[in-house]
């Protein structure tokens, strides 16, 4: 039971809600196994029907993608696919190794990653700073929260024309666009988590006469951390979204630029290499954040065992 | 140690309130409460649900900012408060919960000692959710005790525990009380618990202290003793419940 719960918590926490700290019932020890199962199976004959999905097959999730690649491979090998529309996997692999050996892929990937990383860095810093200002003081809340809630309603990418007008088409504009999207995601979730601190914990802190600093460090910050991570993960996603868009605006380097060029020469193999690179970035960065989250919230993850 | 020494010590009282009023909107929940609890006195506070027990405790612990009221109130410097839920912070290990906000170099050692006293030696590095309900409540007790309170305010600390765990906790609380001698104000809705543990029982009703009864029984107390039953029946009557003629154990639950 606890496993499903904890998965639901991380997977479906909507933006704006801080991942609510798991409420442990004080009158019950942590659940160790399937709750009512023994009692149910003792009743012979009429067993309740299983409503959840069945048992998981190891690596079962890979079946879909593998099948997809197989169909792709087969149809290009049988000549159903026009290489100008979609190159076969063999061609894509050859192109990829070509791009690697000339260094074109790495160079562009490095530029793209640098943009995403800088945008993420500034965005997270700004988001956390604003959330702390708005979450911990009334005047900060009045000054900061309104504009950011409005900004939330305007997609960062809609600001692109304005930002190009102000900052030109250089790196500064690109990093700013990415950072804006990240900052809003981090802000919304961290702020919600800060203001949603459990009142019972505040009461405890008061009864223990904690100083303001200890209160922030031991109660507020750890309590808001799950919400921050929700924001961070959304922020990482939005960073790559922003990256893809800004790299198509007059860029002269980056994965997006490489793909854009390939489009003009109808090189679908290069485009696919670019797509795969974006996919790997996205997946790897999300996995990285999850590892960090797992460590930072280790008190939580022992619940799922 | 068996009988209670009574408030004959020269120490100033642990609680003194005078015409204490607390109201929510138009409703006066506490109406001019005059209460004195002596240093080291173990007092239980009974009352129906909604009678204002928690309101009184919050007032005594100074946690009721924003609640309107008047009156005078004096409590000692070191007051510990414990809640119905153990209120351990889930992201701090048990020992860190116990010493939370405690200054000084020896804080950790004192925390360890307190944990050992409540029978949780060896669980210092556990996460709160790895403890059973009773163990969590014991950790909360350690957190209250490690501050060496002159006054311990406890709001239904056993309310969420199962019957067996409760019996053990009663013994533990009384034992710790005998050793450390803080004044205790224990809020409970369980008459048997009040008579078993406290040397004085108050009943809060209509915002006033309607009953103030000294319990003159040797400890440890047996719930089967006829005099225990007498106290119990008097309090039940005061609470508007007709006591059953036959002693029953089901109130333990
Ligand atoms: N924060 C609050 N706002 C409004 N009414 C409250 C508040 N806290 C308590 N009350 C009311 O005051 C009365 C006493 O509450 P409480 O002290 O919690 O009772 P008890 O602990 O004896 O069950 C109840 O009627 C309750 O509804
Ligand atoms: Mg109450």
TrEMBL record, chain A:
Residue ranges of every copy of the ABC transmembrane type-1 domain listed in the record: 105-289
Annotated localization: Cell membrane
Using the UniProt annotation, give all residue ranges assigned to the region (Disordered): 1-54
Write down the superkingdom of origin: Bacteria
Span of the signal peptide: none
* Annotated membrane topology: Multi-pass membrane protein
Record keywords:
Cell membrane, Membrane, Transmembrane, Transmembrane helix, Transport
Give me the segments passing through the membrane.
59-81, 116-137, 149-169, 175-198, 219-245, 265-285
InterPro entries given for it?
MetI-like (IPR000515), MetI-like_sf (IPR035906)
- Reply yes or no: does the keyword Nucleus apply: no
Family in the record? Belongs to the binding-protein-dependent transport system permease family.
* Protein name as catalogued: ABC transporter permease
From TrEMBL, chain B:
The UniProt entry, under PROSITE patterns, shows: ABC_TRANSPORTER_1 (PS00211), ABC_TRANSPORTER_2 (PS50893)
Entry-linked InterPro entries: AAA+_ATPase, ABC_transporter-like_ATP-bd, ABC_transporter-like_CS, ABC_transporter_ATP-bind, P-loop_NTPase
Entry keyword Membrane: yes
- Classify the source by domain of life: Bacteria
Which keywords appear in this protein's UniProt record, sorted alphabetically? ATP-binding, Cell membrane, Membrane, Nucleotide-binding, Translocase, Transport
Claim: ATP-binding is one of the keywords in the record: yes
A GO molecular-function annotation: ATP binding
The ABC transporter domain covers: 15-231
Annotated PANTHER family: ALIPHATIC SULFONATES IMPORT ATP-BINDING PROTEIN SSUB (PTHR42788:SF17), TAURINE IMPORT ATP-BINDING PROTEIN-RELATED (PTHR42788)
**Record protein name field:** ABC transporter ATP-binding protein
Species for this entry: Streptomyces physcomitrii
């Amino acid at each position: 039971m606890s496993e499903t719960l904890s998965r639901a918590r991380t997977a479906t926490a909507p933006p704006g809600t801080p991942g609510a700290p798991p409420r442990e019932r004080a009158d019950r020890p942590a659940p160790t196994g399937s709750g009512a199962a023994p009692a149910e199976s003792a009743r012979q004959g009429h067993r309740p029907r299983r409503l959840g999905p069945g048992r998981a097959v190891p690596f079962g999730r890979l079946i879909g993608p593998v099948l997809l690649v197989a169909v792709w491979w087969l149809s290009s090998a049988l000549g159903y696919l026009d290489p100008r529309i979609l190159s076969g996997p063999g061609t894509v692999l050859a192109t990829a190794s070509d791009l690697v050996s000339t260094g074109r892929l790495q160079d562009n990937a490095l530029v793209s990653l640098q943009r995403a990383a800088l945008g993420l860095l500034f965005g997270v810093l700004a988001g956390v700073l604003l959330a702390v200002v708005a979450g911990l003081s009334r005047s900060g809340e009045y000054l900061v929260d309104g504009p950011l809630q409005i900004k939330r309603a305007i997609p960062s990418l809609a600001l692109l024309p304005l930002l190009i007008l102000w900052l030109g088409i250089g790196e500064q504009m690109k990093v700013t666009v990415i950072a804006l999207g990240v900052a809003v995601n981090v802000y919304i979730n961290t702020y919600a988590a800060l203001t949603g601190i459990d009142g019972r914990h505040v009461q405890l802190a008061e009864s223990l006469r904690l100083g303001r600093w200890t209160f922030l460090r031991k109660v507020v910050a750890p309590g808001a951390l799950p919400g921050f991570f929700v924001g961070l993960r959304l922020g990482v996603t939005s960073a790559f979204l922003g990256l893809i868009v800004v790299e198509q605006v007059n860029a002269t380097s980056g994965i997006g630029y490489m793909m854009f060029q390939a489009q003009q020469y109808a090189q679908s193999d290069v485009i696919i290499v670019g797509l795969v690179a974006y996919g790997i970035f996205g997946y790897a960065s999300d996995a990285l954040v999850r590892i960090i989250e797992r460590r930072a919230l280790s008190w939580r993850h022992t619940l799922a065992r | 140690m068996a009988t209670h020494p009574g408030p004959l010590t020269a120490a100033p009282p642990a609680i003194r309130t005078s015409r204490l009023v607390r109201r929510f909107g138009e409703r006066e929940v506490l109406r001019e409460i005059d209460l004195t609890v002596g240093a080291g006195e173990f007092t239980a506070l009974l009352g129906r649900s909604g009678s204002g027990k928690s309101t009184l405790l919050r007032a005594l612990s100074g946690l009721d900012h924003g609640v309107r009221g008047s009156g005078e109130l004096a409590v000692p410097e070191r007051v510990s408060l414990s809640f119905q839920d153990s209120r351990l912070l889930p992201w701090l290990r048990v020992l860190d919960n116990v010493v939370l906000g405690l200054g000084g170099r020896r804080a950790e050692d004192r925390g360890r000692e307190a944990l050992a006293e409540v029978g949780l030696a060896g669980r210092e590095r556990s996460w709160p959710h790895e403890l059973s309900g009773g163990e969590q409540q014991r950790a909360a007790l350690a957190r209250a005790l490690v501050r060496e309170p002159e006054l311990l305010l406890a709001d239904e600390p056993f309310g969420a525990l199962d019957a067996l765990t409760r019996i053990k906790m009663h013994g533990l609380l009384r034992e710790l009380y005998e050793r450390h001698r803080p004044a205790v104000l224990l809020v409970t809705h369980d008459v048997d618990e009040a008579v078993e543990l406290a040397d004085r029982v108050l009943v809060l009703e209509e915002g006033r202290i309607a009953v103030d009864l000294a319990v003159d029984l040797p400890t440890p107390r047996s719930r089967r003793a006829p005099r225990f039953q007498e106290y119990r029946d008097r309090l039940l009557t005061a609470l508007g419940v007709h006591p059953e003629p036959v002693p029953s154990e089901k109130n333990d639950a």
